[in-house]
Amino acid sequence: MILYSDRVYTSEGCQACFIEIVDGKIARILPKEAGLQADIDYGHQRIIPGIFDTHNHGACGWRFDACNEEEFKQALKGEAAFGVTSIFPTIQNLDQFELTAKLATEKIEGAQVLGIHSEGPWGSRVGEKGINLGYPKVNMETAKKMVKDGHGYLKLVDIAPEVDHALEAIDYFVKEGITVASYHTNANYEEANRGIDHGITVATHLMNVMTGLHHRDVGTAGASILRDEVTCELICDGLHVCLPMVELILRMKDHDKIMMVSDNGSYLGAPEGKYRGEAKNAGNDRKTITVTPEGFVLSETGRLSGSSKPVLYGIQNLVEKLQVPLEEVVKMSSLVPSRKYGFEHKGSIEVGKDADLVVITEDYQARHTYSQGRLVFNRDQEETPFNQQFIRENKME
User: Fold this and answer.
1) Which CATH number fits domain 2-47+352-378: 3.40.50.300, 3.40.50.2300, 1.20.1630.10, 2.30.40.10?
2) Residue 397 predicted with pLDDT over 80
3) Helices and strands (H, E) in the chain, number of each type
4) Pairing of strands 200-203, 51-56
5) Cα 128 to Cα 208: distance, rounded to the nearest angstrom
6) How would CATH label the architecture of 50-267+308-340?
7) DSSP string computed for 9-77
8) 76-114 residue pLDDT tens
9) Cα(356)–Cα(85) distance, rounded to whole angstroms?
């Protein structure tokens, strides 16, 4: 198959070129002057590398923590509708590890599962306006079970470095070849650095639910920015982190150390309104959830509870509002996470790599999404899927 566009965002920059795809790989990239006959001519529409979202709890009325196999696949199809071709489903329910690992071995008609991201369970901070019901204590038997049940697909574990026995757990996961991130943490600068010294190399959604920048102690956020070992997740919806702070981070941190993430959940693509939440414990502030017209997903106390905006929306913010060139932005949405987690065959439009591509409209919607050369979402013929049962059972107003 041969695709053509006047604006293909290749590893060499934006080019007018043909992309030849053979057996799911990019076989050749040839200039417009080659005069090939394209199977699909996208004209002036932009083709960017498929998005790799490493922090994502679900989509379109489905949550990875609480899906059966068919529902999980529907959620992955929903991800493809927003340009995601590779994903670490972000799981807090350890019972889902087995299913997630199984799906990582299959070709899905949607985003491809490349690994498991375990957000927690060992944190200490719930964020602004949250009700802290406490976190479980570090348990090394649980840590070992996580690795066992992940069947080699557990790629990322988040932990607050200051909690009791956290450093022991960090040492264990690093020894097992698993990346560790600082997460939901009250760590001061010294404590954050101690965690990095033990092997933390990722900051979970930088600035959110962590000690921030203060002129007497720059906290976990400051340590994550200053330490070159750390690659920072960054939610660029303009809601989790205001755009002036995003701009400040982009000026302070090497862009090769920034990964755009969504922190999406089941409310991605949901209409605004009030919903029954997913709270399981008495006293939790998520018994009801409000999706605002701006796209905030808020608990009863006003605490941010994930994002309703995809990475593509963050890409639009960086390009249109912060004037960051798209060829630079797509590195943070695709190439940086691919390199960080060892998927060198993904992340850019380059000969020899997987043909993970997204054709985007002028308003940053995914028109066509290709995973390893397969068209897994076609906006010309299908709508963004959404779990209507979720609306019927949970939407209150």
Assistant:
1) 2.30.40.10
2) no
3) 11, 23
4) unpaired
5) 9
6) Alpha-Beta Barrel (3.20)
7) EETTEEEEEEEEEETTEEEEEEEGGG----SEE-TT-EEEEPEEEEEE-EETTEEGGG--HHHHHHHHH
8) 999 999 999 999 999 989 999 999 999 999 999 999 999
9) 6
